[in-house]
UniProtKB/TrEMBL annotation:
Domain IFT122 first beta-propeller residue range list: 15-185, 190-289
Domain IFT122 second beta-propeller stretches: 294-416
Lineage: Eukaryota, Viridiplantae, Chlorophyta, core chlorophytes, Chlorophyceae
Protein name in UniProt: Intraflagellar transport protein 122 homolog
Residue spans of the WD repeats: 56-83
Gene Ontology, cellular component aspect: intraciliary transport particle A; non-motile cilium
PANTHER family recorded: INTRAFLAGELLAR TRANSPORT PROTEIN 122 HOMOLOG (PTHR12764:SF4), WD REPEAT DOMAIN-RELATED (PTHR12764)
Family matches, as Pfam families: Beta-prop_IFT122_1st, Beta-prop_IFT122_2nd
Any coiled-coil regions, as ranges: none
Keywords: Cell projection, Cilium, Repeat, WD repeat
């Protein structure tokens, strides 16, 4: 996978308010991007155009209703403003503290807003805002896909899981570190991805049980979001990057590197784009280009699936087998009874259990080359792998020794 910057902009400061982009959100049809930058709400055409609209004091959060009819902004002035999709302010309500985060219910169109002291629930049918006290500052929130549960991530390390009326059903203690970002899966499995300010990524079920082991990110996560129908997870943070993970937290690759903290990352619906909001006020949109990783030899075709699996298909019998590599699959090569899979830090060689059977589909791990090797092209033979990097060809034995190297005058485009 590779990424390219589709567009980016750093709006100038206005009225002396520090220019930080804390949050962005997309209209559900993907045509519009809303960003809170400094003391302004900026409404962008998702391709390149922009129309600025003013909001009082620093804007901390924005959220779009799932029906696409309205969006909301909130910030340091303790006020939530409801806007039409044409950026016309139609309603506002206040809390006693600054607005830290907001989220629209995907089913009922309720708007939840969180502060240091309470959570508010507003809906188009209500004339008032229902508010419920909380014991710690709310840092993040997320609704389940069916709109039945709302998770609140708090500064004291707890997660409050509430029903759509705002009543607490369960409280989960994750530790002492603030729960800075969280998101429910996009499926009905109701698993919560949680990013804590101790540099960990956790997964918790709706009943409060941990799912799998905690992942050490190596940085403090500031934002996380599922996209591509919940297959992937994008996480941004204090290391000034945006990183791509599988839905269960396996690191895949880096999406973007910036010069400052990346406060938020949001996927563009129906497209392989993500928008970023940065500490210096920059809004950037990146296109993610997922390349096909595959290999073919006679009647055996192998291809990457879900970025971490390899599927081998027999083209005659149409039988398929899946190999779960549990890591980012970079390259695949097939030759006779051999299958080579390049992962970030090694190349794994698989072979057929019964190579004399032309229909055998039982692959087993035979050996590994425990090296981080860069290549544009990969070929496997009976006892070697060949790596191509620009003008260079390298021949490695399965045991890991480099036996030959050729440097040509021109860039190599294809090998077989």
């Amino acid at each position: 996978m590779r990424t390219v910057v589709a567009w980016q902009e750093t709006p100038p400061e206005k009225d002396g308010v520090r220019n930080v982009c804390y949050d962005v959100c997309y209209k559900p049809d993907g045509t519009q991007l809303v960003a809170g930058v400094g003391n302004r709400v900026l409404v962008y055409d998702a391709v390149d155009a922009t129309v600025p609209h003013h909001a009082q004091d620093s804007v901390y959060c924005v959220a779009y209703a799932h029906n696409g009819k309205r969006f909301a902004s909130g910030g340091a002035d303790n006020t939530v403003i409801i806007w039409t999709s044409k950026a016309e302010g139609i309603l506002k309500y206040t809390h006693n503290d600054s607005i830290q985060c907001m989220a629209y219910n995907p089913v009922t169109q309720q708007l939840a807003s969180g502060t240091a002291s309470d959570v508010g629930l507003w809906s188009p049918e209500q004339k008032s805002v229902a508010k419920h006290k909380v014991s710690a500052r709310i840092c993040s929130m997320s609704w389940t896909a069916d709109g039945a549960l709302l998770a609140l991530g708090c500064f004291d390390g707890s997660i409050s899981i509430r029903d759509k009326a705002g009543l607490e059903k369960l409280k989960v203690e994750t530790g002492d570190a603030p729960v800075w970002c969280l998101s429910w899966t996009l499926t009905d499995q109701q698993v919560l991805a949680v990013g804590c300010m101790d540099g960990t990524l956790k997964f918790i079920t709706a009943t409060g049980q941990p799912k799998g082991k905690d992942r050490d990110l190596g940085f403090d996560p500031l934002s996380l979001t599922y996209f591509s129908n919940g297959e992937y997870l994008a996480i941004s943070g204090t290391d000034k990057t945006v990183q791509l993970y599988t839905r269960d937290g396996t690191f895949l690759c880096q999406i973007a590197t910036r010069d400052c903290w990346v406060w938020c990352v949001r996927p563009r619906p129906k497209h392989n784009f993500v928008a970023l909001g940065c500490e210096d006020g920059t809004i950037a949109c990146y296109q993610m280009i997922f390349s096909t990783v595959h290999g073919l030899y006679h009647d055996r075709y192998a291809y990457r699936d879900q970025m971490t699996d390899v599927i081998i298909q027999h083209l005659i019998t149409e039988q398929k087998v899946r190999i779960k590599c549990k890591d980012y699959v970079k390259k695949i090569a097939v030759y006779r009874d051999k299958l080579a899979v390049q992962l970030p830090n090694k190349i794994v060689i698989y072979e057929l259990a019964n190579p004399s059977d032309e229909y055998d589909m039982h692959y087993q791990s035979a050996t590994k080359i425990q090296q981080k090797l860069d290549c544009n092209l990969l070929v496997v033979t009976s006892s070697h792998v060949i790596l191509c990097q620009e003008k260079k060809l390298q021949l490695y034995a399965f045991e890991g020794a480099r036996e030959r190297e050729w440097v040509l005058e021109s860039v190599i485009r294809y090998i077989k």
